[in-house]
Amino acid sequence: MKAIIVDDERLARQELKTLLAEHKDIEVIAECANAAEAKEKIGLLKPDVVFLDIQMPGKTGLELAQELSPVPELVFITAHDEFALRAFEVNALDYLLKPVQPDRLAETLKKLFLREDDAAPEDFRTVLTDEDQVFLKDGERCWFVKLSNVRLFESEGNYVRVFFEGNKPLILRSLNNLEQRLSPNSFFRASRKHIVNLRWIENIEPWFNGGLMVKLKGGEQIEISRRQSVKLKDMMSL
């Protein structure tokens, strides 16, 4: 897979190139120090992925991304996390903070290889943990949210409502799809309509027909069927 590194700092380019050298499926075919040079090289060499700094003299990496057509996979690498939302608005594959950690880069490359393989089964997609952050967009509003802060997913037709802090945006996903991506150590399929974050459970009470009523710290109350109640009791018992 062909890659181009774009960063105005020579040492930053060399450091990333060294990290990528550990991954034999990635070949760095060019390095660029600014957006103008990068735009020319990207158009000429047609890379599969561009590792792109955001703050550079002249045009920023975000401005460059908006000018590219066709757009390769983009991985933004920067020392400033305040640009995360804007990075995902231009459909970035990932967003890494400097100094780049080898294990975090490995996660990004795994995402890249899976996206390239259109035939990759759903079961082999990366499972998200509490420490992962996800990009959410509902209309004009955007959020970059750590999954540990999400207390509830609620199905609404072809959409899912995501509950975190005081927000409840709708995203175009199925609850079944989300269940496959979420760690079962943290998230539990409470019903046909709900997935709850186990760490947000405040109280559990017996309910009708052998079921349970779960109250979350955010105030939501979720009814759990007898069948799912058995699974929940097994998970949460010593």
List the helices and strands and how they pair.
Elements: E1 2-6, H1 10-20, E2 27-32, H2 35-45, E3 49-52, H3 61-67, E4 73-78, H4 84-89, E5 94-97, H5 102-116, E6 133-138, E7 141-146, E8 150-156, E9 159-164, E10 170-171, H6 175-181, E11 187-189, E12 194-197, E13 201-206, E14 212-216, E15 221-224, H7 226-236
Helix pairs in contact: 2-3
Attribute tags:
OB fold (Dihydrolipoamide Acetyltransferase, E2P), 31% strand, single chain, alpha/beta, Rossmann fold, 29% helix, 238 residues, 15 strands, 7 helices, 5-stranded antiparallel β-sheet, 5-stranded parallel β-sheet
Any overview of this molecule?
This protein is of the alpha/beta class. The chain is 29% helix and 31% strand. The strands form four sheets. A five-stranded parallel β-sheet has the order 2-1-3-4-5, sandwiched between helices. β13 and β14 form a beta hairpin. It is elongated, with a radius of gyration of 21 Å.
